[in-house]
Amino acid sequence: MVKEGKPDKLYADSVQLAYAKTLEFVSHAIIIVMALGFILYIFRLLPLTVPVETVAANWHLNATKLQMKIHHHSGWSCFEDVHTFMHGDAISYASVVFLSMATMVCLATATIAFFKEKNRIYLLITILQVLVLLVAASGKLTSGH
Amino acid sequence: MVLKNIRNWIIPGVFGLLLFLNPEMASAAEAAGVTTTAWWVWVLALFVFSFLLGIVAVLAGVGGGVLFVPIVSGFFPFHIDYVRGAGLLVALAGALSAGPPLLRKGMADLKLGLPMALVGSVSSIAGALVGLAMPAKNVEFLLGIVILGITAIMLKAGKSGYPEVKEPDALSRMLGISGCYFEEFGQHEVSWQVHRTPVATVLFLIIGFIGGMFGLGAGFANVPVFNLLMGVPLKVAVATSGLVLSINGSAAAWVYMFNGAVLPIIAVPAVGGMMLGSKIGAKLLPKVNTRTIRMIVITILAIAGFRSLLKGLGIW
Fold it and tell me: How many CA atoms lie within 13 A of B23 on its CB side?
């Protein structure tokens, strides 16, 4: 249905506005963290756990073989301890972890907003969605060649 | 002037880079186990290529992920595992950065997107697990088939600006899926509702699986399902598709990360280049003939699809 003229009203409800606000903050933060992490990594401003040249010499191998050969960061390994984290490649990898967590943070905001609205159906959907992402982020589901 | 620039340097730039990135070099590197080119050349080339791809993807109205995976896996020396991991992150980052204004304008709709994302994210995890367990040759062969299928969809599928839905279905009524947004172009308000929600839910399950398996953003399939099947206005379909693929992409990305298939040296320049290129593309969008660009992109996609298919068969 199409109506002429611009009415004086909002087109997004409070949940969408909350989701958008969180998403905006998180996406800007991710861009900054990714850029800084990558600079630390490729310019070797911090020591590296695996040299870039070693990664490049093996990036033709599949993920399973590369992990067996050079033990590159995977899953949450960059957060194992402070010493591991204080490496350029670990920080750059952590920025990618933040990127993957962004949706979860936004969904957590939506869950709270749906709870306040007492919208039971969407509260259940967002809780289930967060659970699916948490299972994926737990590392329980792995595959490989 | 802008159109001239696109014709003069962006499209030739994409083709030039593909020629520069000699696939023989990649194959030789794979055989020898070492790259003959300095690593930073590949990383820089990936950044520039992703930047150009970001511009072209917006102008052609396709997601970056769907172009990224077949082309980069065909012309760069990286194993397809890392290309798929990076492809998911490229699609995820693009959707995240475009999301806030679209949500505020009521174009991306949470009540429409969340139920579809829930089923899609479960199947995208399953797709990622299956894709990572398969031999690379099989993945490349199947990717070739999927990409050629997408090319056909892009050539054939119609689109409807404001589809008319006379009666919403019971499931969409129960979920409260309907909305309203202001159409800036025509200065009018558009109300919408949906039908055929159960069928669409099944299709999102399949789309999620394919997206997770091949590391593709699935906008190419989400948009027609929302628009042509459910009757969602085109702009809402495009915007909500981004929301769905950000959730599906995030779910599958974790599987790739835990399998060691995400390398920052590949993923970060790809994400950065694509995000910068998309912003430039969005600014150029009102000034260029998108139909011509779309046909060129469909051609590039078809070539990349054939190459992937032949690579999977061990012919090229």
Answer: 13
A-B Cβ pairs (cutoff 8 Å, strict): 244
Closest CA in chain B for residue A74: B260
Q: What is the ipTM of this complex?
A: 0.90
Residue B140 CA to residue B272 CA, distance in Å, equals 25
- Counts for chain A of helices (H) and strands (E), in that order: 6, 1
Domain ranges of chain B: 2-312
- The answer to whether residues B244 and B113 touch, using CB atoms and an 8 Å cutoff, is yes
Question: Which of B35, B72, B80, B110 should one mutate to test binding to chain A, selecting the residue with the greatest count of A CBs within 10 A?
Answer: B110
Inter-chain touch B79–A67, beta carbons under 8 Å: no
| HSE (side-chain half, CA atoms, 13 Å) at A78 | 27
Q: Do B262 and A30 touch (CB under 8 A)?
A: no
Q: How far apart are CA B163 and CA B312, in angstroms?
A: 40
- Contact call for A64 and B260, based on CB within 8 A: yes
Cα–chain-centroid distance for residue B76? 19
d(CA B179, CA A104): 24
Chain A CB contacts of B255 under 8 Å are 136, 141-143
The Cα B93–Cα A31 span in angstroms is 9
pLDDT along chain B (316 residues), means of 10: 53 52 45 66 93 80 76 88 92 82 87 95 93 86 85 74 84 92 80 92 92 80 86 87 89 92 95 85 69 76 82 76
| Residue ranges per structural domain of chain A | 14-101
